[in-house]
Amino acid sequence: MQNSRLTFVSFTVKWCPYSRRLQDSFYEASELYKQKYPDRKTIWGNVKCEEQKELEEKYKIYKYPTLKVFFFGYLMTEYRGSRSAEELMEYVERMENTANLVKLNEVESLTQWQMHVVPQKGTLILWFPRGSPPFELILKAIALIHDRLTVVVPIATNLLEHEEHKLWFSLDGEHVQTFDGSITNFEEIAEWIKQKSLGMVRELTFENMEEFAEDGTPMLILLRKKDDNDSETNFKINPFMTDGSILKAVLRHYNKEIDDLPFLIIDQFVHSYLSPWNGDEIFANGNIKKFVADLFNEAHHRKYHKKLDDLMKKITDEIEKIEKESELEEKTTKDPGTVGKQESVFKQLKPAKTRYSFAKEEL
C-alpha cells in the first residue's frame, strides 16, 4: 500500500447481508475505475474479517461493512457515504486529486501568511519551492488531515533562491511553531502536523459525529446558534462546535432551548457534564480552561457522585422519618387489653326446653 497513492479498502464478513451487498457495488466500481484510469495505481481491496482477524483488530473494525481510505499506506479517513458503484467511484476520483484535498493559498512574501488565516483552522506555512521533493512530500502529509488546515505556499514563480526554507504551523494565527525534524522523513512530518492540529476546533455534524464518537476521547462541545460568529471566534481550545438547532435532543436532555445557546458540555460517553456558565460567561478569562481541567482532576466526577450521594441521603432520611412516625403511631394506638375468659354467646342458640322435637338420645 505504501507504493500506492490511494488505497480504498472494504472490511466485510460473510454473514452480514450489507457486506454482501457492498461487495457487488465495490467490485463494479473498481472495474469501472480501472477501465477509465488504466494507468493509475489506486488499489481497491477487500479484507475478509473472519479470515484476517489481525487486520480487523489493527484498524479497529467494530461494524460491517466498513470502508477505509489509505494515503501512501497511511490511514487517512473512513468513507461513510453512499455505497452505490457510481458514488464509490466518484469519491475515489476526488480523493485521487491532491488539488481537491489540499487548497493552496499563494502569497508573494512569507510576511503575508496571515492574510489567509481562517478562525478555528490551523495554518500551515509550507515555504519550499513549488514542485521540489520536500514540497511534494509535505503535501502528502497534509493530505492525511486535509479538511482541518489552511495551507499557505509561495507563488509558483518564487523559487526562494535567497530565502530559508521553512515549515511553520500556527494555531492562533499569530504565533508560529517551526518543524525542526527531518524534511525527508514522511512519518515524522505527518506525526508533527497531526500533533499540532489537535488543538483545532472542529465542526460537529451528523455526518462526522460517528467518526468522533468511535474514538472514545472525551468531547468538549460548544452548542451555539448557527449564525453565532462571536462564539466561534472566542472558542480557542480543542473542542467541537455544533449548530444547537440540529441537536435538539441534546437541548431537551439538558432542559435547554434555542434561546439558551451558547452553552458548553463535556461528554465522556459515560458521563456528561454541563458548564455552570451561559452566554459570554463561558468565554470569560480562565473559565473554559478550568472546566476542562476539572475533568482531568476528577472534580466533575466527584461533583456528579456527590449529587448522587446527596440524593441517596435524602431518600434514606425520608425512609427513616417514615419508619419513626410509624413506630410512634403504633405506640400511641390504644392497647386492646389482655385476652380473658368470656361467656359464650353461642349458648343462646341451643334448642329451647319447650321444643316439640326430640333429641336423638331421647328416642
Query: What's the name of the CATH homologous superfamily of the largest domain?
Result: Glutaredoxin
Return the structural class. alpha/beta
Q: What is the CATH topology classification name of the largest domain?
A: Glutaredoxin
| Largest pleated sheet | 5 strands, mixed
Q: Level of helix content?
A: 25-40%
Radius of gyration: 36 Å
Strand content: 15-25%
N-to-C CA distance = 119 Å
Task: Output mean pLDDT.
Answer: 81
CATH architecture of the largest domain: 3-Layer(aba) Sandwich
GO molecular function, one term: protein disulfide isomerase activity
GO cellular component, one term: endoplasmic reticulum membrane
Coiled coil: 305-332
Pfam families: Thioredoxin, Thioredoxin_6
Any key phrases for this structure?
363 residues, 5-stranded mixed β-sheet, 14 strands, Glutaredoxin, alpha/beta, 11 helices, 3 domains
Blueprint of the fold:
Layout: E1 6-12, H1 17-36, E2 43-48, H2 53-58, E3 66-71, E4 74-79, H3 85-96, H4 98-101, E5 104-107, E6 122-127, H5 133-143, E7 149-154, E8 166-170, E9 177-178, H6 186-197, E10 202-203, H7 206-215, E11 219-224, H8 229-234, E12 240-243, H9 248-253, E13 263-267, E14 272-274, H10 287-296, H11 299-332
Parallel strand pairs: 1-2, 5-7, 6-7, 10-12, 11-12
Antiparallel strand pairs: 1-3, 3-4, 6-8, 8-9, 11-13, 13-14
Helix pairs in contact: 1-3, 5-6
Describe this structure in words.
The protein is α/β, with parallel strands linked by helices. It has 3 domains: 6-82, Glutaredoxin, CATH 3.40.30.10; 100-197, Glutaredoxin; 202-301, Glutaredoxin. Helix content is 36%, strand content 19%. It contains 11 helices and 14 strands. It has helices spanning 17-36, 53-58, 85-96, 98-101, 133-143, 186-197, 206-215, 229-234, 248-253, 287-296, 299-332; strands at 6-12, 43-48, 66-71, 74-79, 104-107, 122-127, 149-154, 166-170, 177-178, 202-203, 219-224, 240-243, 263-267, 272-274. A 5-stranded mixed beta sheet has the order 5-7-6-8-9, covered by helices on one side. Helix 1 packs across helix 3 and helix 5 (133-143) packs across helix 6. The termini are far apart. GO terms for molecular function: protein disulfide isomerase activity. Residues 1-97 form the Thioredoxin domain. Residues 305-332 form a coiled coil.
